[in-house]
Amino acid sequence: MLPKKEFNIYPKTQENLNALLLFYFEKYDLTFENTIEDLINKTSLSLNQIEFIIRKLSESYHTLFKDFLKNSKATSNNLINYGIEALTIDETEWCGSKARLAKTKDFLEYVKKTEKDYNFWGKYN
User: Fold this and answer.
1) Is residue 53 part of a domain?
2) What rounded mean pLDDT belongs to the chain?
3) Closest CA to 65 of 95, 42, 41, 86
4) What is the pLDDT of residues 30-86, one digit of tens each?
5) Per the domain annotation, does 99 fall within a domain?
6) How many structural domains comprise the chain?
């Protein structure tokens, strides 16, 4: 469901991850504490895959996540975890509260509706 790692042309460095976070999330009231370190440690994801997830989260933030995360500590880590879970883990293995599971499903449906190459990523990945 994600772009192939083979399409990645940039290294997954702290500098590149910081640039992604600032570009897509700086306009939102999110904290970035530990986010870069956590993304570096997700060795199964390349930079282009992380960028895809972060871009789709940014696009859907106002409609799906802004009010939902308002009462919790809104961190970029929390938000990114929704995206990673939705796009890399089978739905039967998702964990968390009913509200969290519903929001993860909403995000997955958003990606399916808005990503014209969604079926391509799933079929050829």
Assistant:
1) yes
2) 88
3) 86
4) 888 899 999 999 999 999 999 999 999 999 999 999 888 876 667 899 899 999 999
5) yes
6) 1
Domain containing 88 equals 28-124
Does the CA dihedral 25-26-27-33 come out positive or negative?
positive
Mean pLDDT, range 82-109, rounded to an integer:
93
pLDDT score of 119 more than 60: no
Question: Which token pair is 119?
Answer: 């079926």
Query: What are the residue ranges of helices labelled H in the chain?
Result: 14-25, 35-41, 47-60, 66-69, 76-88, 98-114, 118-124
Residues with Cβ < 8 Å from 12, sequence gap 6 or more?
39, 40, 45, 46, 47, 50
1 lies in some domain: no
